[in-house]
Amino acid sequence: MRGPTSTSFANLLNRPSPESGSHQDAGLPDARRRRMLFNAGALCLSGLGLAGCAGGRKTSSPGALNRPPAPPPSHAKPSAAPVPALRPGAKVAIVAPASAAPNASDLAAQWLEDRGYFPVIMPASRTRLDAPYEYLAGTDAQRLDDLHAAFAAPDIGAVWCLQGGFGSWRLLDRLDYGLLRQHPKPFIGYSDITALHLAMQRHAGFVTFHGPMLAQDLVAGKGEPTESHLLAMLSGQIGEGAWIQPPPDGRAMELVAGTASGRLVGGNLALIAALIGSRHEIDTRDSILFFEDVNEALPRVDRLLSQLAAAGKFDGVQGVIVGNFTRIIGTNLDDAQAQSLLYPLILEQFGARGIPVLAGWPSGHGDPNLTLPLGARVTLDTARAGLRLDQAVIREAVG
User: Fold this and answer.
1) Which of 86, 139, 193, 397 is the most buried (most CB within 10 A)?
2) Residue 46: active-site member
3) Residue 57 CA, distance from chain mean position
4) Does position 98 have pLDDT exceeding 50, yes or no?
C-alpha cells in the first residue's frame, strides 16, 4: 500500500496513458514530446538576483594566484564517514564560498544566537567584489581562506553556507582536501554549493549536508520542517534506521515503483552536469541519485539529463529522487504543476532502466527544504515515499 504522501504519475495526469504499461515505453512519443517542449517556451537567461549591496574590494581578477596541482582522481568509498555532532552552544562558521550577501551575515549570526549557537562570521561573507566579478563574495583566495580556517579551527563545530549563487566551482582545484579529512565537521549548503559537495565526496570522504542555507532559507523563513529537520540531523537525533519523509501535506510522486539502496549523491542538476569531465565529477556507482534545480527551461533540463546519460552517469544508479524544480522558465503554471511537465523527460531517461524513481521530493529551492546527508548509504522506498538511513551520519563530538 502506498503511503499517504505518495501519488502515482498516472493519477497526477488524471488520465490513462498508453505508454505507462511498461517502463520501456514510459516516455512520451517523439511528436508529443517535441510539441510539449515547444509549448514550454524558448530557453532564456535569468538574472543573477544576488543579495547585498556594493562596497566590496576591487580586483583585476579574483583568481590571480598560482594554482597548485589539482588532487589526483580518487574513487568514492562505498559510504561516507559520519561527522561529529553539532552540540548546543558550539561555534558555527558563517561562510560565503559563492555569491555575496553582505547585509545578511549579521542576520544569520542573530539567527544562530537565537538557537543557542555562537556565530563566527568569516570575512568574505561580509563583502562583494566589483564588476565584472560582482557575483562573488570576495576573491577566490579570500573565500578559500575562509573555508580552510573554518575547517582547521578545532573549536568550530560546523561550517554553514550563507547562500549559493555562483562561484563555488572556482575553489575546487585549490581546496586542501587533506586538511578537510583531518578536521571533518558538518558542512551545510545547496544550489551552487553542490560543486563543493561533489568535490568533498570525491576527495574528503565524509558526509556533507544538502540543506538549508542561513540567508537563503533560514533567515528568509522557509516553512517547517526545514529548520527542525536540519537541527535534529546535525545533533544526531536522526540516526541509522531512521526514515526521512516529506511532511504530511507533501506531494511525492512515484514515477517508477520499487526499493533500492546505495550511496546518496547529487545536488543541483546544472552543477552536476558542469563538473562532468573534471577531477571532481559526480561518482554515481552504486548510488541513489538526487537532483533539483531552479530557473531552468524544459529544453535545458532535457539537455542536462542527456549530457549525464551520454557521460555514463546513469549506468551505476540504483534509484532516483527528483527534488524541487522551481520557477521553471516558459510556463505559466505554479511550481507544483510545472514540475509535472518534467516527468516525461525523467521517465525517458530512467523508465527503461527499471530503477525506482520518486519525484516531487521537497529538497532544494522550494519550501520546505529537507536536509539530505550526501555520501551516506540509504534505502529509497517509493511506496513509502521515503529514505531510510542505513548508516550513522553523525557521531559524538570529540572533546
Assistant:
1) 193
2) no
3) 29
4) yes
